[in-house]
Design brief:
The complex is a heterodimer of chains A (221) and B (235). By secondary structure, chain A is an alpha/beta fold. Chain A has ten helices and five strands. Chain B has one domain: NADH Oxidase. Chain B is built from seven helices and ten strands. In chain B, the strands form three sheets. Chain B has a five-stranded antiparallel β-sheet with strand order 1-2-6-10-7, sandwiched between helices. Chain B has a three-stranded antiparallel β-sheet with strand order 3-4-5, with no helix packed on it. Chain B has a two-stranded antiparallel sheet with strand order 8-9. The chains are: A alpha/beta (221), B alpha+beta (235). The complex binds cobalamin.
């Protein structure tokens, strides 16, 4: 029998939120991320260990499959759902400071743009990977990004855009944020963007998909 | 030719939206898609039609108002900047039809309702279904224009949209200035984005000598474009 942490990783990887989830077929009827997290906490396992050795491992596995083209966005989303089910039990520990998240990312789709699916996926993947996400929504003006950065000292920022017209508005956001704090790290993404564009506007990096950002952050922290 | 403004509200049943294409749009081979995702997709697909308020319309420009060269397309006193990716299609056309289609604002609201309920998976799938549906609406209007043109002894080109084939998306503004305000319920924002989101715009060339060319992906330098990806996958 696998350890409870292994079982939990498996639930995250395959997106099994709780005992009632009908997915994946090989875990039907078995306890899911919610029940297993509760049991693990009750048996005295530290919340940080549950987060880092079970939940993150599961997210990493599905993320790697995604990067290799063996899994797709819906897989990431069902894993994120299972992750949320587990995190509900861990939340009190985070609130009391007994366990900590990796950091805070402020995300938003830049002004003039209403496309939110890409940004929302970034949000879910980051949350699933242990980040606190402050979501500013769509059509976000530079001032709002600056305000959120001030309210969340030490945060990083993720900007999203759909069109070649609206991505130009990213430059103003980068300028405003850097003016306020020159150390702030800003990451950009969205269909029409490129590495060259990110460098030109002074962003830290461009990623074609959010898992690239997750990997970058874990190897650069 | 009929140079009036034409607006239709096709019945959902007239569109050819296929669940297989929706699944494939998410990246899966149909046979490899997890059961859970197929079942959620099926359920949302059945529901999606009740949130669609389809509008599709076009306007054919009078041939004397239209001209195209390698670098420009002129309609009345408006000049559009294009390059050979578009002009290759327009070589033998007499005129163009400008078309717009949209699923309406209820669809955007439906997607939003899933985000509000914190259901990212359903939101994503509903979004993908919407993209597939509005593309099917564009197929519908293309088919209508094809039939109408053939009845007059003409042929049509592929659909060509601002934002594709090196035709800058900001030129949407000029294109929409040739249509009545809020045509098919679609409005343009300052940055040339259409609202409702699930909307498509473009032109279709029409002419007695017109031939349908493939999209010119082989001479295009934009790697992220999905038309290009589609064309490389096919090869
Ligand atoms: C589906 C689609 C549509 C659909 C739906 C659009 C929608 N917004 O809902 C429909 C058919 C309606 C459509 C219409 C149009 N489209 Co369109 N569309 C696409 C397509 C094929 C996929 C977009 C999508 O939803 N992807 C899925 C989501 C999840 O991906 P995403 O938003 O890119 O986000 C991912 C990554 O980019 C990344 N990411 C995003 N943000 C961030 C941020 C950070 C920090 C990080 C790390 C990562 C990250 O992570 C996400 C998850 O992997 C793209 C092509 C492509 N290759 O992407 C073109 C594309 C976006 N469309 C394009 C265009 C031009 C249009 C139209 C203007 C065409 C027209 N004239 O009708 C219209 C505009 C619509 C409008 N409302 O104004 C262009 C935009 C580029 C440009 N030239 O400006 C693209 C890129 C195609 C192209 N030519 O290459 N479109």
């Amino acid at each position: 029998m696998n350890s409870i942490l292994d079982q939990l990783s498996e639930c995250i990887e395959f997106g099994k939120a709780d005992i009632n989830s009908k997915h994946p077929p090989h875990l039907i009827g078995k306890e899911g991320a919610s029940e297993l997290t509760k049991t693990a906490l009750e048996s005295g396992i530290d919340a940080n260990i549950i987060l880092n050795q079970a939940l993150m491992t599961g997210m990493q596995r599905i993320g790697d499959k995604f990067s290799r083209g063996k899994a797709f966005i819906p897989n990431l989303l069902i894993s994120a759902k299972a992750m949320n089910a587990a995190m509900k039990h861990l939340k009190p520990y985070f609130d009391r400071g007994e366990a900590s998240l990796k950091g805070t990312i402020v995300v938003g789709t830049v002004s003039g743009d209403l496309h939110d699916i890409g940004k929302n996926i970034v949000k879910m993947v980051m949350e699933g990977n242990g980040w606190k996400v402050v979501d500013l929504g769509v059509d976000v003006k530079p001032e709002k990004f600056v305000e959120a950065a001030e309210q969340n000292p030490g945060c990083i920022v993720g900007l999203s855009a759909l069109l070649t017209t609206t991505m130009l508005n990213m430059e103003g956001v980068v300028k405003a944020l850097k003016q306020n704090s020159d150390k702030i790290k800003i990451f950009v993404g969205g269909a029409p963007l490129s590495h060259e564009f990110a460098m030109k506007i002074g962003a830290e990096a461009y990623f074609p998909e959010p898992y690239g950002l997750v990997k970058y952050l874990s190897s650069n922290n | 030719m009929n140079y009036d403004i034409n607006i239709f509200a096709p019945q959902y049943e007239e569109l050819n939206v296929q669940i297989e294409n929706i699944i494939m749009r998410m990246g899966y081979e149909y046979s490899e898609c997890p059961e859970e995702i197929i079942s959620v997709t099926n359920q949302l697909f059945r529901e999606s039609r009740f949130h669609v308020q389809l509008k599709a319309g076009f306007r054919i420009i009078e041939p004397r108002e239209f001209a195209a060269s390698k670098k420009e397309m002129v309609i009345g006193d408006l000049t559009f900047l294009i390059d050979r990716m578009i002009s290759a299609h327009l070589k033998k056309v007499d005129t163009i039809a400008i078309f717009v289609c949209s699923l309406g604002k209820e669809y955007d609201k439906w997607i939003r309702s899933f985000y509000d309920g914190n259901d990212g998976l359903n939101a994503y799938i509903a979004d993908i279904i919407g993209s597939e549906t509005v593309e099917a609406a564009a197929d519908w209007i293309e088919e209508y224009i094809r039939k109408a043109s053939e009845a007059e002894g003409c042929h049509i080109t592929n659909r060509l949209s601002p934002g594709y084939c090196n035709w800058h998306v900001s030129e949407q503004k000029k294109l929409f200035s040739l249509l009545p305000e809020s045509f098919c319920g679609v409005a343009l924002t300052e940055s040339a984005l259409m609202t409702p989101i699930k909307s498509v715009s473009g032109i279709i060339g029409i002419g007695a000598e017109t031939k349908k060319l493939d999209y010119q992906c082989h001479i295009c330098s934009i790697d992220h474009c999905y038309m290009k990806r589609k064309s490389t996958v096919k090869k």
